[in-house]
Amino acid sequence: MSEILKSSKISVTPTAIHDVLMIEPKLFGDDRGWFTESFNAQDFALATGLNVEFVQDNHSFSRQWTLRGLHYQLEQTQGKLVRVVAGSVFDVAVDIRKDSPTYGKWAGVELSAQNHKQLWIPAGLAHGFLVLSESAEFLYKTTDYYHPQSEVCLAWNDLQVNIEWPLPKGITPNMNAKDSAGLLWDAAPKF
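Below the sequence we write its predicted structure tokens.
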């Protein structure tokens, strides 16, 4: 997919990873404010060619410079449709599928409450985000249930992957112990 696809209600733009897609729902606004369908299965399938079923919704709140990820599950792999409803984040997907033409590559986009963009991340990719605003609320739908026994964390700062996180000089991201101990590329299991 190398072009922008549009349905009547959403547009889809490919990223640096061929099947990681930026989704932009149409906003309907007037002097009262705005309205959008944040997800419509029929429109999503029409615009992306994907027929997905979501089974779980997640919602997180994080403070500025918090970095969550890069997470994936070896079992019950999850496709994710992610968005931000307050604040802004730099959202990243890393392709860990050995047979993919973009294996080892990453794609990153800013998602914010202002731009209303969403990111579709298919199963088989590591995912994480960095909070850019004072705080952010991050929502995502998943195609399978959380399976903590098979969760893996890829190191956010692995030199081989070389993600260009928009961290100001001298700022160290706020991370939990699990994310701080992420595996380097060569040690991380792949699909």
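The first helix runs from residue 41 to 48.
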